[in-house]
Each structure stands twice: as C-alpha cells, then as structure tokens.
Amino acid sequence: xxxxxxxxxxxxxxxxxxxxxxxxxxxxxxxxxxxxxxxxxxxxxxxxxxxxx
Length: 53
Known about the structure:
The protein is α+β, with helices and mostly antiparallel strands.
C-alpha cells in the first residue's frame, strides 16, 4: 500500500510542503458495514485535491 511504499523508500515524492501536508491529512475510516474508506477534511484550500490526483 501507499504508506508501505513510502516507508520502504520505494516511492519518491517531490519536496513539496503542500503535497506532504495533504498526504498527512488523509484519514482511514471504517464504514458502518466494516469497509475501509479514506477521506480528508475539506478546508479553504481544498480536499487534499493534489493527493487524490
């Protein structure tokens, strides 16, 4: 998964503070049926748009 790729340094990201901030804003949530969902809170700057892109 994405987090493991980053931890292993198998994935290089640009040194971009805004992108890193958006990555950190992603939260794992569980739906009522027990499925995993990922989401980020909406702010005046967006909804982690660069992460999702």
